[in-house]
Amino acid sequence: MSRLFHTGNRALQDRFDGRRVADALEARRRRDTFLPEHVAMIEAAPFFFLATAAEGIADCSFKGGPPGFVRVTGPAELEFPDYDGNSMYLSLGNIALAPAVGLLFMAFDGRSLRLRLRGQAVLVEDPDRLAAIPGARRLVRVAVTDIFPNCPRYIPDLAAGEPSAYLPRPDGSQVPPEWKSRDYIRPILPADDPHRSGPGIAEHLG
């Protein structure tokens, strides 16, 4: 049984011939615990994006701080501070009612890094802990259930002012991403995938 996909995901995977690829990526890429490179990316990040939802209302929020403001506190656990805000408590209010969260870490500096996390969040209001973190009003602790680094091909290089090289060209064609050339992916690409046939991926990538 899949940990990543629900019936809605499955329905579209089957409609568009993607279940084989989805299953292979889940089997090969999804993890239960952090690798050292995941920890390094998270704890160097000056920001991430937080998704929450409750009572049929979804929200996505930018969370920023000094590098290290998100701390990995266990094999599959992290914490980040909640700083002074606008008093709407959109993210925290959602968490209070529905603890399921999604976190997205990205690097826009040409390194092409993207890390998705899913988990269960809880608010922590420990005065001693908060006193050790300048500016923290409270902490959010996330028990991470799914760790999934995935294709970063559309991320722009903001440091260089360059768009992703993988964006569609004027004729609609695209440079294929490296992951589609992997032995466990290439033979099972969807029937209509533009990189399944024609010139080899290695040829496209030079």
UniProtKB/TrEMBL annotation:
Name of one Pfam family that matches: PNPOx_N
Keyword Transmembrane helix found: yes
Domain Pyridoxamine 5'-phosphate oxidase N-terminal: 36-136
InterPro entries reported in the protein's UniProt record: Pyridox_Oxase_N, Split_barrel_FMN-bd
Superkingdom to which the source organism belongs: Bacteria
Protein name per the record: Pyridoxamine 5'-phosphate oxidase family protein
TM ranges: 88-108
Keywords tagged on the record: Membrane, Transmembrane, Transmembrane helix
PANTHER family reported in the protein's UniProt record: FAD-BINDING, PUTATIVE (AFU_ORTHOLOGUE AFUA_6G07600)-RELATED (PTHR42815)
SUPFAM superfamilies found in the cross-reference section: FMN-binding split barrel
Organism of this sequence: Belnapia mucosa
